[in-house]
Amino acid sequence: MSSVQLQDFAAGWVGGAASVIVGHPLDTIKTRLQAGQGYGNTLNCVLTVYRNESVAGFFKGMSFPLASIAVYSSVVFGVFSNTQRFLSQLRHGDPSHTPALADVALASMVAGFVSVGIGTPVDLVKIRLQMQTQPYIEANIKLKPTVPGFPVYRGPIHCFRTVLQKEGIAGIYRGAGAMLLRDVPGYCLYFIPYTFFCGWITPDGCISPNPSSIWLAGGVAGAISWGTATPMDVVKSRLQADGVYLNKYKGTFDCILQSYHNEGLKVFFRGITVNAVRGFPMSSAMFLGYELSLTAMKRDQTETNP
């Protein structure tokens, strides 16, 4: 693999770390709203978490995403950029040729598909840690909770090991189907708007977008992507939160049916405001970290090899 190809993975790692630091508090609120723990609305959820768990409650489970989502983002951006280059080489004989819209869409879909392999276990551990201190709500009297009202996991490694021991590989990849349905179209609505808005905002004659253009285009792309991904994100969050104290759902389709039957169509849009609001700063940080670190690496390479 060439240095240019490796730079995309390295820059994706930086962008991923930046996005986690910026977005984790809102991610915690989003997860708790979607998992159906009795919060009336977003403000009530924020106040309840703060009252019961103080500021630390918003950062619960952050250490694992910070370590792993950086790797996850590295893979996503690396696969996306290298797929684009491969398609440009295939179509035009030049990997640096500006990709067509169809190439951006295809590269986004490939990135979304590959991301599920890494992202599902990461999200499962993060959500289990975020949810385990919530009050136990008995949804089905036939199901017996393991340890209602008390923490089940001591940390991310213990959570991963416990799920693997009790549920096997299938448990670690619980919610993978819903995540696939979320991420494949979701990354199309992530990279395509970013590419469009970045090109639209960047003044004519500029070789590359400036930081403010990257920040704005990345934020808009994130809000669009996360807002439209909310229905399948709700299903994924419920499937992965399921199993901390009890098991309600047999799979993706069963989760959709039970959620609709019990709470109606509106349940699939729970947390959409938080998702869209959270998507803006997270994606701004993601793309800004990615583009600036990529520029810095290319500059260093140019200076080293004049």
Gross morphology is globular
- Largest sheet report: none
CATH topology: Mitochondrial carrier fold
Order of helices and strands: HHHHHHHHHH
Total domain modules: 1
CATH classification class:
Mainly Alpha
Strand count: 0
Write a compact overview of the structure shown.
Its main location: mitochondrion. The chain has 306 residues and is mostly helical.
Could you name the key traits of this structure?
single chain, 306 residues, mainly alpha, Mitochondrial carrier fold, 10 helices
Please provide a written account of the structure.
The chain contains ten helices and no strands. The longest helix is centred in the last third of the chain and has 33 residues. It is mostly helical and about 300 residues long. Helix content is about 75%, strand content about 0%. The protein has one domain: Alpha/alpha barrel (Mitochondrial carrier fold). Belongs to the mitochondrial carrier (TC 2.A.29) family.
